Amino acid sequence: MSSSAHGAVAAPGVARLAQHFASLEVQNHAARLGMWLFLSTEILLFAGLFVCYASYRFLFPEAFAAASRHLDLTMGTVNTVVLITSSLTAALAVHYAKEGKNNLVALMFGLTIAMAGAFLVIKGFEYSHKFHEGALPGPHYRMEAVQLPGVQLYFTVYFLSTGLHAFHVIIGMSVLVWLMIKAMRERNFGPDNYVAVELGSMYWHLVDLVWIFLFPLLYLI
Amino acid sequence: MSVANESQQEAHNMEHHGAGRYYLVWGALLVLTLATVLTGRMHIPHFALVLALVIASVKGTLVLLFFMHLIDHKGANRLVMAVSFLFVVLLLILPIADFATRFRPSNPAGSHLSDLPDLNFIEGKTGAHGGMGGAHGGTGQAAPGGHAAPSPSGH
What we know:
The complex is a heterodimer of chains A (221) and B (155). Chain A has six helices and no strands. With 221 residues, chain A is mostly helical. Chain A is elongated, with a radius of gyration of 21 Å. Chain B is elongated, with a radius of gyration of 25 Å. In chain B, helix 2 runs antiparallel to helix 3. With 155 residues, chain B is mainly α. The longest helix of chain B is centred in the middle third of the chain and has 26 residues. Helix content of chain B is 57%, strand content 0%.
């Protein structure tokens, strides 16, 4: 029985309770509040880029509208649907974690990760098309089709915001890979031990949340 | 002890419920995506941005409440989100109010709040935009045609 210095190794389906928490409920509550605080800082991080977007769009409305019509709306829409569906599977993983169905948790996260990969591949095609056209930020802009003051700023904001978002997709994928492996190896998620799944899934929904705002603002001016 | 009460309440709220609501939210998000694409492509004058933001906010609220369970996480969790959105709105409004109320010549050249032309888009001025002679004439854009002639269309 005597195991690690960590105290009781969790029995199947039972979370490890840190000593400084009065009860599992209090520990879970603190974990969720911590996650919301972290996500609020993430929202404010992206808000900085949204402010750049809003300011430059306010100053250069024609250039932003013209540049936005040079994005691939079909790919953008497909990516939106992919990301929303990946959010559904992430939410379902929490649902199955509460039921203790560890195989289904792993499957749902596997699907989420696959869709995240698809999102990045589609995004990569869009980027390579932009590089090819010369629709690049700042002084590197050389797309003939749109020659308006401020158009380089649109592509600066486009690459910064979608790039930061793609970076978050990659972080989210890593977190979900870790949770998927945990579900497959330890098979320990259950009605009293699902908060890790819940928080990982919350991170993924944040990635979706940011894209929900980026998509219409970038593609549909 | 109120923390314990709130924790218990939250644990109770998070107790198992069917997966049905996740599928419903997913369906609603897909419908709203379709709505934003269709209305966005119409380029409705004046209201396009407001409409896009309203649809995105509804979608975001659905994700927050149901996928991220903010409907079950009450109290401090909601306060954190509400405060963060308040700051996002402040962060958006103040710089725009700044640009909108500036002395015109201090806004970036070439913007619609400036009377000065953007030198990057004047023929022969730029290396980076080498072949733009033709494109410049052909786009029928709104760049102020010439020099810093004070345009009466300013306000």
